[in-house]
Amino acid sequence: MRVTVEAIGAAADGIARDEAGRPLFIPFALPGETVEAAPGPMRGEGRTAALITVEAPSPDRVAPPCPHFGICGGCAVQHWAPPAVAAWKAARVSEALSRAGFPGITVDPAVPSPPNTRRRADFALRRRSQQEGSGITVGFHARGSAEPFDMATCFVIDPRLLALVAPLRAMLAGLPALRRAGSAMVNLLDSGPDLWLRTDGVLTPADRTKLAAFAEANGIARIAWSKEGTRDVPEIAAQSGTVQANLSGVAVTPAPGAFLQATPHGEAAIVAAVLAGLPKRMPGKPRIIELHAGLGTLTFPLAARGRVDAFEGAPEAAAALHTAAGRAGARVRAERRDLVRQPLLPAELKGAAALVLDPPFAGAAEQAAILARSTVPRVIYVSCNPAALSRDLAPFARAPGWRVESAVAVDQFLWSTQVEAVVTLARGP
Predict the structure, then answer these.
(1) Rounded Cα–Cα distance for residues 275 and 298 (Å)
(2) Residues contributing to the annotated binding site for S-adenosyl-L-methionine
(3) What's the pLDDT tens digit per position in 61-89?
(4) Which one of 16, 144, 210, 294 is separated from 359 by 20 to 30 angstroms, measured CA to CA?
């Protein structure tokens, strides 16, 4: 089928029309291109299609740098010129605001994090059968598959994480605890790589000895372990030094697998946008409320501007934040609270100069509705999901007096479909 691509969707599929006028979703096709595509099964109100040839390429089509592109499920738009990707991601934020009831908001193109700066990787592990040639597959999941592919290079993650792939593959080959499948999540902290290994078998004393030697040889301060498929709290299998992340000058000890912003550049952009969203003038001893505070990525910069009441649901993160704030003498009161089941009520919000909300991917629908009805003068919403952002800001559009003062798009997931946003909502004209 010869078609012209009209637009690009949220999943980075080119969108054309089939002979019946239904949407045709074509991966790796770009807006404005004339392509030959093979229609496939139905998907919602449209059909999927495979790209056969590009007859008239877009001027924004570029050669993808990675040999794994198209195979790896991580990157979706390496074939699209960076300025076009930046404009598309900004447009997604603007469209989310419009759907919420705030049309016409200008969002500047998202500045992407540089290549090879992502400091978190979750590698899938699989022991190959003898028929497959034995050995261990270490890599990301293949596109549209639950199976990993064997990784040779990556233009997204920090080289120090990529350097662990080969020695990890060699070590796991002799680790009986990995029977068939598992995963290895690595955070690159200021103290070095922090590894959380999950296997489908139980560690033996000999396995623990191998992990300790592996940690020592590869500069890994801590290796945690848990059984694959369980929600068990990971246990420390090997530790040779201090585990530490520096958040705006404050040393924090994260739990294994703790959430961190994906890149230092992305973290800096989000912090800058949040601080810029605070009121230009605040009272002498302002109170700032922070919801879903995590380890304190935003907490400690905010504490330089006022007293912060920081709420976090994950017990390990709340404890790490509390300990770090106390050690640093920061103006922070950290409290563990399940904000999904127990959102803050209007009476608890009184007296706050501003509120910062940085929810997980699912958003914070109940809390957002409460905030829209509250007397808080300013809400700064940090979003990693345009759909949740649109839903959560709709109550503000319906409530009297709220306006979007600023909206900043942040692209720290290079070449992916993901985009983050920092939206400042304020009362008044």
Answers:
(1) 9
(2) 261, 312, 358
(3) 999 999 999 999 999 999 999 999 999 99
(4) 144
